[in-house]
Amino acid sequence: MKTKLRILAFFCAVPLLASAQTADDIVKKYVEARGGAAKLKAVQSERISGRISFAPGLEGSFFIEFKRPLKMHMEATIQGQTLVRVYDGKSAGWVINPFESSKDVQPMPAEDLKSISDESDFDGPLFDYQAKGNQIELAGKDELEGKPVYKIKLTQNSGGTRTYYIDASSFLVLKWEGVTKQEDQEIPVENLLGDYREVDGLKFPFEMNTGSPGTPQHRTFIIDKVEINPKIDDARFTKPAPPAASPDPPSTPPTDPPSPQQNLLE
Fold it and tell me: Which pLDDT value is given to residue 112?
């Protein structure tokens, strides 16, 4: 009788074992949900444009251009003031921040350069994570807004960590959280992604809400257009021209202008 019970228990456990997911299994399904590794690798450049909002009345437009390897040009215009961030994909970056005392072209801060590859890698750190020197582990299952999700902990080559919440049904990322550094302070960051749409066979989130829990810092990105493989001159990723003379900045500039270490396509 005991032998029969053991045999029965074994066969009952087989479906559970067969359905067990590893972190690598989940990330592979995430890549397939995005459109597949081949299509992702075929993308050589991207241009994303849309709207950004910090609060009612404090809104504007933005666009980001990416080109392999790791080149990036971003502009965000808020109340007539344009913030510019450029990275050449190698070692140099530049910033024009009209909300600072100096409005000229400035070298990108060294702290930003340490993590700029996270911002300019439009594939995201989960895709091809092993080649990038990142590590992943399954941190269990959870529920997010009523949906079952897998939690994947990513340890980046740089030493930073993130936790991704991947929909157990669609295998798309619904949220990721981590820590960013600003002026030698570690600040928690939380990103919610949604409104996924297909563009040229690839899935992209067309809405992202990002902020720091427990602080007033908050941004909403609404993407209007994603362009795949647009022609972008390499000159776009060199030192930008000095800004033209502009009126004084608004009396209430955003307390949290678009910042590094977030990728709108993850």
Answer: 87
Which burial class, exposed, middle or buried, applies to 104 when counting CB atoms under 10 A from its CB (0-12, 13-18, 19+)?
A: exposed
List pLDDT tens digits, range 107-132: 999 888 988 988 999 999 999 999 99
Closest by CA position to 252, among listed 141, 65, 104, 99: 99
Question: What distance in Å separates the CA atoms of residue 260 and residue 117, rounded to the nearest whole number?
Answer: 10
197 token code pair: 């749409």
Rounded Cα distance between 88 and 237, Å, is 5
Q: Taking the alpha carbons of 173, 174, 176, 182 in that order, is the dihedral positive or negative?
A: positive
- Tally of CB atoms within 10 A around 11: 8
Which residues is 176 bridged to in the sheet?
164, 191
Q: Rounded CA gap, 152 and 172, in Å? A: 12
3-state class (DSSP) for residue 138 = strand
Q: Which helix (H) or strand (E) holds 32?
A: helix 23-34
Distance CA 52, CA 63 (A): 10
Q: Would you say residue 170 has pLDDT above 90?
A: yes
- Secondary structure (3-state) at 247: coil
Alpha carbon distances (Å) from 127 to 37, 76, 86, 131: 8, 27, 23, 9
* pLDDT cut 70: percent of the chain above it: 83
263's enclosing H/E stretch is: none
Q: How many CA atoms lie within 13 A of 119 on its CB side?
A: 24
Instruction: State the pLDDT at residue 266.
Output: 64
CA-nearest of 40, 20, 43, 15 to 30 is: 40
Q: What is the DSSP letter of 44?
A: -
Q: Residue 261: is its pLDDT beyond 50? A: no
pLDDT tops 90 at residue 51: yes
